[in-house]
Automatic annotation (TrEMBL):
The gene is hemJ. Keywords: Cell membrane, Heme, Iron, Membrane, Metal-binding, Oxidoreductase, Transmembrane, Transmembrane helix. Its EC number is 1.3.99.-. GO terms for cellular component: plasma membrane. The chain crosses the membrane at residues 6-29, 50-70, 82-100, 120-138. The lineage of its organism: Bacteria, Pseudomonadati, Pseudomonadota, Gammaproteobacteria, Thiotrichales. Catalyzes the oxidation of protoporphyrinogen IX to protoporphyrin IX. It comes from Thiothrix unzii. One of its GO terms (molecular function) is metal ion binding. Pathway: Porphyrin-containing compound metabolism; protoporphyrin-IX biosynthesis; protoporphyrin-IX from protoporphyrinogen-IX: step 1/1. Homodimer. This is Protoporphyrinogen IX oxidase. It comes from the Bacteria.
Length: 141
């Protein structure tokens, strides 16, 4: 029962986290277009707020995930899918950190990449979401 409540909160905040992981790089796509320079000040505010919300989502997702690991008493570490999930979470945290570094560059008007690069950068969280959810729910191995 308790485990199920923790899992529900875990998934709710995972959605909050991903809302940011999907939309922050989208803002970077627009922010990387010189023709939008009249809106750069607004983009900076939107990016800062979205990053704050997605970081809260990430921390709460991780805390409630760790609570489930503790509740499970270590049995999850016997499963291959769980090890793989943890590896992909490490990549996701790396991506989150990359978003932070890029935000600081935009804030200093020091962005060096074009909008096409951000369009590709924007695809990574979709791939990670699909694979992590399949691992967590299907538990294929
Ligand atoms: C941030 C670190 C994370 C930790 C420590 C963690 C840990 C866990 C644990 C221990 C469970 C319960 C597993 C079970 O009982 O079978 C779980 C469930 C789940 N996690 Fe995570 N997780 C994390 C991040 C994520 C992310 C990023 C996603 C999505 C992309 C995700 C999606 C899910 C889903 C959908 C479930 C429910 C699976 C079910 O129906 O049983 N988790 N997580």
């Amino acid at each position: 029962m308790m485990y199920e409540w923790v899992k529900a909160i875990h998934v709710i905040f995972m959605v909050t986290w991903f809302a940011g992981l999907f939309y922050l790089p989208r803002l970077y796509v627009y922010h990387a277009m010189p023709e939008n320079s009249g809106s750069f000040a607004l983009f900076k505010i939107m990016e800062r707020r979205l990053f704050a919300i997605m970081t809260i989502g990430a921390v709460i997702t991780a805390v409630f995930g760790i609570i489930m690991i503790v509740q499970g008493g270590g049995v999850l570490f016997q499963s291959g899918w769980f090890h793989f999930k943890l590896l992909l979470i490490a990549l996701l945290i790396g991506y989150h950190h990359a978003c932070y570094r890029l935000m600081i560059k935009f804030r200093n008007d020091a962005n060096t990449r074009d909008h096409r690069w951000y369009r590709w950068f924007n695809e990574a969280p979709s791939v990670l979401l699909i694979v992590i959810v399949i691992l967590a729910i299907v538990k294929p191995f």
